[in-house]
């Protein structure tokens, strides 16, 4: 049955549901399931990666090879009591985790998982994702400020300084590729690349890819750039006072944002859903999860940098290099 051809009870009035709206609603439902399932899988994989790299046992007690440990953790998280700390701003305190989580669904909409597997077709898909990504910074700022906790406030200040600083070279690195192909449409950027690695944009813009990936680590607050949380210094930073599903929403948003930055890297630099044989969404997911494994490997291998080192890396190296790379691209395109 074609959903878009449903008719109203009144035979004289035709009820037509536009195909783009149907695609959008179905896409949102599918994305909600994907975000939940993805977080469950990634938590288990990250624990196993950490156990392997640091030679310590990962989850092994709940279910075969500890495969049900994440489910047990989720049940515990949902069952915890929600509490608001004394002196906190009640409205902003609970608005922050919602604001951190909900924009994630909008950022997934224009991502092309396959030739016909996307929820929203727009020629400014990359701009849409970057615009909504900025809301996450505001959510972390609100969480730290509204908690009435000094560790939360310091963590929020760090999150804002880090996100605003690293956002600039990240944008410049993506603009270099957009200049090359003259588009902000993720589907067009994917189709402009070929199935083989030397036909991908990473072969043309290796410096832009390196800068983007480093900035993506910082934007998602992943180690070695996890200073907004920094357990050994700030307890848990901006989400120190959150428990239960308040913390759970920040947790889900972090893993969903990891998927988003890796999906952008895949579509813009790594050929997207195209591969040497049988192009399809499996190539897209293979590339995305390979990048995620690299992010996990870096978290459990490299120590956390100091805050001055974090800022120096951005302002002294990444930003000048990204600017020079963009200028060089513009000159070459003009010639």
UniProtKB/TrEMBL annotation:
It holds the Pfam family NADHdh. Belongs to the complex I subunit 1 family. It catalyses: a quinone + NADH + 5 H(+)(in) = a quinol + NAD(+) + 4 H(+)(out). It comes from Alkalidesulfovibrio alkalitolerans DSM 16529. GO terms for molecular function: NADH dehydrogenase activity; oxidoreductase activity, acting on NAD(P)H, quinone or similar compound as acceptor; quinone binding. Its EC number is 7.1.1.-. It is found in: Cell membrane; Membrane. One of its GO terms (biological process) is aerobic respiration. This is NADH-quinone oxidoreductase subunit H. Keywords: Cell membrane, Membrane, NAD, Quinone, Translocase, Transmembrane, Transmembrane helix, Ubiquinone. It comes from the Bacteria. One of its GO terms (cellular component) is plasma membrane. The gene is nuoH. It is a multi-pass membrane protein. NDH-1 is composed of 14 different subunits. Subunits NuoA, H, J, K, L, M, N constitute the membrane sector of the complex. Its main location: membrane. The chain crosses the membrane at residues 20-45, 90-113, 125-147, 168-186, 198-218, 247-270, 282-302, 314-333. NDH-1 shuttles electrons from NADH, via FMN and iron-sulfur (Fe-S) centers, to quinones in the respiratory chain. The immediate electron acceptor for the enzyme in this species is believed to be ubiquinone. Couples the redox reaction to proton translocation (for every two electrons transferred, four hydrogen ions are translocated across the cytoplasmic membrane), and thus conserves the redox energy in a proton gradient. This subunit may bind ubiquinone. It is an enzyme of class 7 (translocase).
């Amino acid at each position: 049955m074609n959903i878009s051809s449903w008719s109203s009870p009144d035979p004289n009035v035709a009820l037509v549901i536009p195909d783009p709206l149907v695609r959008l609603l179905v896409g949102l439902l599918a994305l909600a399931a994907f975000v939940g399932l993805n977080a469950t899988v990634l938590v288990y994989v990250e624990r196993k990666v950490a156990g392997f790299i640091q030679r310590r046992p990962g989850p092994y007690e709940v279910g075969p090879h500890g495969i049900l440990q994440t489910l047990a953790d989720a049940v515990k998280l949902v069952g915890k009591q929600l509490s608001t700390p004394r002196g906190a701003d009640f409205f902003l305190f609970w608005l922050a985790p919602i604001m951190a989580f909900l924009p994630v669904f909008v950022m997934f909409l224009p991502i092309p998982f396959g030739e016909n597997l996307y929820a929203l077709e727009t020629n400014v898909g990359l701009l849409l994702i970057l615009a909504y990504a900025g809301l996450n910074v505001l959510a972390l700022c609100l969480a730290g400020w509204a908690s009435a906790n000094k560790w939360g406030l310091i963590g929020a200040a760090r999150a804002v300084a880090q996100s605003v600083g690293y956002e600039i070279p990240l944008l410049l690195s993506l603009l270099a590729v957009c200049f090359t192909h003259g588009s902000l449409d993720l589907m067009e950027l994917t189709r402009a690349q070929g199935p083989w690695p030397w036909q991908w944009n990473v072969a043309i813009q290796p410096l832009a890819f390196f800068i983007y990936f480093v900035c993506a680590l910082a934007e998602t607050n992943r180690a070695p750039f996890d200073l907004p949380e920094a357990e050994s210094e700030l307890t848990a930073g901006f989400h120190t006072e959150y428990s239960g599903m308040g913390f759970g929403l920040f947790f889900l948003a972090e893993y969903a944002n990891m998927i988003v930055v890796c999906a952008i890297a895949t579509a813009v630099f790594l050929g997207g859903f195209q591969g040497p044989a049988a192009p399809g969404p499996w190539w897209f997911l293979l590339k995305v999860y390979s990048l995620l494994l690299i992010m996990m490997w870096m978290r459990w291998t490299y120590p956390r940098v100091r805050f001055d080192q974090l800022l120096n890396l951005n302002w002294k190296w990444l930003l000048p290099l990204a600017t020079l790379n963009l200028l060089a691209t513009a000159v070459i395109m003009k010639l």
